[in-house]
């Protein structure tokens, strides 16, 4: 059954709202932005896998703009683009893997990591401890909160959302 555009838009708005709400439940807050939350990316990732990458990118970018309004950390206009609409928009890449949930979640979060990583190398390399390469610093800093977010997202989908998937379809979604 084909969904109409209004219901897809409403679903996207709800997922952005749920993601924003979950982003307030912080397990860890990094000093220069970034945090481990209670699975705040899961609604965007699932929306992307249900509705496709293009709609997921729009929903993710919208979520990123809300994050910019709620908790801005701004050092440069290009950094704002890399760390907010682009980084969160790349979560929509999960929509390329609608039948492969684990792969979709991983690719979406890796997309976000890549955007934050670039921002870190370009704009936050000076924060690196003396003698540490900006690439290593950015990878460690962003990995320190996105790796736990990946684990939380995978666990949340496995134990919370999988119960809604019929057993005969489960094998397709586990890879």
TrEMBL record:
An annotated Gene Ontology molecular function: thiamine transmembrane transporter activity
Keyword Transferase: no
TM annotation in the entry: 7-25, 31-49, 56-75, 81-97, 109-128, 140-161
Keywords: Membrane, Transmembrane, Transmembrane helix
InterPro entries found in the cross-reference section: Thia_Transptr_ThiT (IPR012651)
Keyword Transmembrane helix annotated: yes
Any single Gene Ontology cellular-component annotation: plasma membrane
Protein name: Thiamine transporter
